[in-house]
Amino acid sequence: MNKYIAFFLSVLLAVVGNVKAQSMTISDYLQQQQPGLDKARLQLQDIEPLIKHYQQSSLVEVTELGRSVEHRPIYMLRLGQGKKRVLAWSQMHGDEHTATAAIFDLLKYATAPEQAAWLKHWQSEITLYLIPMLNPDGAARNTRVNAQGIDINRDALALQSPEGQLLMATATKLKPHYGFNLHDQNRFHAAGDAPNPATISLLAPAYNEAREINASRKAAMQLIALVKPWLDQQIPQHVGRYNDTWSPRSFGDTFARMGISTVLVEAGGHRADDHRQVARRLNFQLYVQWLDAIASGSYQQASLDDYEAIPFNRSGGMKDLILQNLQLRVEQTEATLDLAVNFHTESDRYARIHELGDLSVHSAYHQFDVSGLAFRPGKAYRLEKVLQLDTAAHLKLLAAGYTHFSGEAKLLQSSSSLPVLLNPLRPPQQTPQLRQGATFLLVNAEGEVVQALLNGQLLELATGKVRNPLGT
Ligand SMILES: [Zn+2]
């Protein structure tokens, strides 16, 4: 091969293989992400093989910081040897694992041969310390708290939990300049007034009650301001600012008081994204940009106006489902109202009636106008002999008013493609009751069943189509 062509090809390959993280398309990202972490929850056994893998890498130093209450190891991984020290920790709440996956995306990206030049660029400036699962006991139980029942993020002053003690001892010893406090937030936060979930919320936590801005908090605000325009492009109107009320027991606020420029990142919900993979990708891309900006100091040019322009989260602004203009008659009182349904979490499979009335100020992952249709309670179909239930038979039973089945499970042989409710935990009520099951019929003025809500999923009887199947 002509040596010029060979040279050209090698440059081209280097460029193609070296897609900058912040300009990655979703398919670029999916090709390079750490496989195996797109799950409803992550526990220590999900990340330990990866930690073992990085123990073999000459680029990463792995240490066991200490042990949890139940003696699970808590690891820290270090990259780089620069003067600017950055400490990031995830999953101090055991059921918040999105950033843990993003940390392993970052490790995979930073140690890939095609990123050698990028790694070299920042690791002479930065030493990066990563604690990817501070609360492995909570992760094992899928709880926010640790095995003592303590919320580690309210233990920064009392330091009663071994996990909190380890985090504080690490920060005291390493004296990081920058801290990244990585969490998942309630999926029902809306991004300000937008009708969308806050998929990413950011905050430079306050270090005192007056929420003053000193040099270290200003740096944290500028790191956030720097990425705001990029986030607005990636997820327009899905970016929020977390509540900035001073919370002295929290690590973010305490570290801010210790002079660490601390950024809180909250990964939130997104439509059709049960495992928060959108927030995971954005987290990873944010880490890369922050490393670049800290290495170069470029964030110091960012305007605090961009930080202030991020709207605060609107708590409870999102619901899973809102049915608008449902007619409801209770005794002699008739009303046309909105009805909201929530699942407790993305992986929860039990839909509950959440709120009734004028819900026009709220938004929803799914919203349907059911004007002209009235609530009617569903009946239980009592299984007394074997029932072969295909979709057509199921639709006929729904049209006849049966929303669910009761009796022995073995008597129901279902091939129905619709949601089948057998012996529901809380049987549907005669009128909608808060926190009870979201299963009922919707009838037209002639009293015909036109639609049915089956465990929070709205079915059109004429087409047999479920308009918001679980996971969408
Ligand atoms: Zn949290």
Automatic annotation (TrEMBL):
InterPro entries: Peptidase_M14. Its cofactor is Zn(2+). Residues 1-21 form the signal peptide. Keywords: Hydrolase, Metalloprotease, Protease, Signal, Zinc. PANTHER family: PROTEASE FAMILY M14 CARBOXYPEPTIDASE A,B, SLL0236 PROTEIN. Belongs to the peptidase M14 family. This is Peptidase M14 domain-containing protein.
